[in-house]
Design brief:
The complex is a heterodimer of chains A (249) and B (238). With 249 residues, chain A is mostly helical. Helices cover 79% and strands 0% of the residues of chain A. Chain A has 7 helices and no strands. Classes of the chains: A mainly alpha (249), B mainly alpha (238).
Chain lengths: 249, 238
């Protein structure tokens, strides 16, 4: 048995719930949320962008947790968790970056610029992409898992520094939560096009989108873990068959 | 009882420091006799600086403006050379295995390697600073600039030793190191570069302007050293 029946049942339910949540949230984003006064409908990207960015960050926390647990317990399931989480986190981060870039063109008249936050998101993307290069270069299972775990910890230090730098160094990225003064300052400089969460409906839409992305993450995570277990089972079988064939010879 | 545990702690600490110093001394002796690491780094850097000059020849003003960035880029690249050389030496001559057999705490090896490779890189940077002053006419000798260079190098090598110890055990060996290490080093290079650039003008910045950048560099150093301390054991044990 690769996965227990309970695992499969939860997986199935989660898949369905995630699909329904995505459809419902799309409806909420496009029909329920009010149109923003400064930017119009383009502002709706915000719900995709923030939702995926938030979940991407959580994914990397979970990957870090998996890495630390693997170093502590040396059980393969933690390495699988870390691998799956980094993969999915990378996807969410890419989604957030693309969404942000699409928003940036009408807002700042540029697809990209090297502000501190955007620079550091690039670093995060590069760092976690390199994770897969490291994994690909090691053949031994245990060593691969160990090195991957160490790398995830070191990469996380990089992310912490990215976060600290963003808070300390100046940035033109709109600060929506917890920084009314900064928003005002940005607006003065003619850089701020987004007036913040000025409606309860917007807040609720944001919460809905974040919850949906979290459900999506959980569903993808469980699917990925199952895939990995299947793949490991196949490798085990291959080795058994090879051993038996060699034994017969 | 208290005396006994205190004594044990001080003797453990003393053993630790002895181990660290032994690793540093070993690397220094090897370097003294073979001169391979620093000379390779210096040659690479000289060639790189001249290449930058040629590449930017058409726009010398622009070249001067970006010189602090070029300085850090050269340090990063030459650093990967030094890291590769130093850690590959350990593997080739199986000195790493010898170190691991000895009852030396793993993080003492880590700290020793960080110190010795940092010293090599700092030796390189002395020459780089001179070259940059000559070719780009920028006042790199300012004490704050040198301080930031030292702090930045420590953090970079702290991350570098962890990653290099992993990559030399892989199939791709030296090739993989820049791919892994350079993204990790970027949150260090950005503030460090900003801070150094602030000192390139005749008008010197006040401490308040550069303090956040310098603090970020220091925090990075501390976090990386801590990460290396805690995880080096898992990297070298087979």
């Amino acid at each position: 048995m690769v996965t227990s029946p309970r695992f499969d049942k939860v997986l199935k339910i989660l898949n369905w719930v995630a699909v329904i949540a995505v459809i419902v949230t799309l409806g909420i984003i496009f029909f329920y949320a009010p149109t923003e006064r400064t930017m119009g409908n383009v502002q709706r990207i915000f719900y995709f962008h923030v939702g995926s960015a938030w979940v991407g960050a959580v994914a990397f926390f979970i990957a870090l947790f998996g890495g630390v647990m693997y170093l502590w317990k040396s059980e393969k399931k933690w390495d699988t968790l870390a691998l799956a989480s980094v993969e999915i986190g990378l996807v969410f981060l890419t989604m957030a970056t693309v969404a942000g870039s699409v928003w940036g063109k009408p807002a700042w008249n540029t697809w990209w610029l090297w502000s501190p936050r955007l620079t550091l998101i690039t670093i995060a993307l590069l760092t976690y992409a390199a994770y897969f290069m490291l994994r690909g270069a090691i053949e031994d299972d245990d060593r691969r898992a160990r090195f991957a775990a160490v790398y995830v910890i070191v990469a996380f230090v990089t992310i912490i520094m990215a976060y600290i730098s963003v808070r300390i160094l100046r940035d033109i990225h709109p600060v929506v939560v917890g920084g009314v003064a900064e928003s005002a300052q940005g607006a003065e400089e003619g850089l701020q096009e987004f007036s913040g969460l000025d409606s309860a409906k917007m807040g609720m839409t944001l919460m809905a989108s974040t919850m949906t992305f979290s459900l999506l993450y959980s569903a993808w995570l469980m699917n990925r873990i199952k895939l990995q277990r299947l793949s490991d089972a196949v490798n085990d079988l291959k080795m058994q068959v090879t051993a038996r064939l060699q034994g017969e010879n | 009882m208290n005396n006994l545990s205190n004594n044990k702690k001080t003797s453990e600490a003393r053993e630790f420091i002895t181990a660290v110093m032994a690793v540093v001394w070993k690397d220094m002796r090897i370097e003294q006799h073979t001169r391979q690491t620093v000379s390779v780094m210096v040659m690479f850097s000289v060639v790189t600086v001249i290449m930058f000059n040629f590449a930017l020849e058409s726009n010398l003003d622009a070249a001067r403006n970006v010189s602090t960035g070029l300085l850090w880029a050269t340090i990063l690249l030459a650093g990967t050379l030094g890291l590769n050389r130093s850690m590959a030496l350990e593997q080739e001559n199986q000195t790493m295995d010898a170190l691991l057999i000895a009852p030396v705490p793993r993080n003492a090896i880590y700290l020793g390697k960080v110190i010795s490779i940092t010293l090599f890189t700092l030796a390189l940077e002395v020459i780089l600073v001179l070259l940059f002053m000559v070719f780009f006419n920028k006042p790199m000798w300012r004490p704050m600039v040198l301080l930031i260079l030292v702090l930045g190098t420590i953090g970079y090598i702290a991350a570098g030793v962890i990653v290099t110890s992993m990559t030399i055990q892989t199939r791709s060996k030296e090739v993989l190191l820049p791919v892994l290490l350079l993204p990790l080093a970027l949150p260090l290079v950005l503030p460090a570069s900003m801070a150094v650039a602030a000192y390139m003008f005749p008008q010197q910045p006040v401490w308040g302007e550069v303090q956040s950048a310098v603090y970020i560099v220091i925090i990075y150093d501390i976090l990386m050293l801590a990460a290396g301390f805690l995880t080096y054991h898992f990297v070298v044990e087979s």
